[in-house]
Amino acid sequence: MHQTTTPPPEEGGTDQRTASGEDHPFLALERELSVFLRRARASSGEMAREVHPELEAAAYGLLVRLADAGRQRATDLAAYFGVGKATMSRQLRALSDLGLVTRTPDPADGRASLVALTEEGHARFSRVRDARRGQYMRKLADWDRAEIGELARLLHRLNTTLGG
């Protein structure tokens, strides 16, 4: 068993390592991200099924991106999510088959197309997103809004760092 001279950082201590050299902040980050990612995967599956019973959990993130950023090329979506073109093509085909997205020619390059939510896709997605936002608001009601903003900022920074 190892001991530190001060409490771990997550408990207000300043010593960053245990006597055996373990780094508390990174251990805590790994632990919390593991739990968060497990819950996020389950949540994405639930939300995907609420949008459409046949929608894959992984495709839910595409709907989020298209709703937030608007029309996009498939190659840009693949780069954003860090997946290959074949994976992106398969997911977009599934979304198209479900009537949730559509492709239109890219006016800047006739060889490419732009992917966008259909009216149906937008309506279904918005309904689920609004319900989920309501759940977050209820569950985080006792959090200070500045803390929620800081969490969003830090998650954005983490996503940017890990994605690049």
Description:
There is one protein chain. This protein is mostly helical and 164 residues long. It has a single domain (46-163), classed as Arc Repressor Mutant, subunit A (Orthogonal Bundle), CATH 1.10.10. The chain is 62% helix and 10% strand. It is built from six helices and three strands. It has helices spanning 24-51, 57-69, 74-81, 85-97, 119-139, 145-163; strands at residues 72-73, 101-106, 109-117. Strands 1-3-2 form a three-stranded antiparallel β-sheet. A hairpin with a 2-residue loop joins strand 2 and strand 3. Helix 1 crosses helix 2 (57-69) and helix 3 (74-81) packs across helix 4. It is globular. This is MarR family transcriptional regulator. Residues 1-23 are annotated as: Disordered. GO terms for molecular function: DNA-binding transcription factor activity.
Contiguous low-pLDDT stretches (5 residues minimum) are 1-9
- Estimated helix fraction: 55-70%
- CATH top-level class: Mainly Alpha
CATH topology: Arc Repressor Mutant, subunit A
The mean pLDDT is 87
> How do the helices and strands follow one another from N- to C-terminus?
HHEHHEEHH
Distance between the termini: 38 Å
- Indicate the multimeric state: single chain
In CATH, the architecture is Orthogonal Bundle
User: What structural category characterises the helix and strand content?
Assistant: mainly alpha
- CATH homologous superfamily, by name? Winged helix-like DNA-binding domain superfamily/Winged helix DNA-binding domain
Give the biggest beta sheet: 3 strands, antiparallel
Shape: globular
Number of discrete domains: 1
Number of strands: 3
Contiguous helical run count? 6
Tell me what portion of residues adopts beta-strand conformation: 5-15%
Spatial ordering of strands, largest sheet: 1-3-2
* Rg (CA only): 20 Å
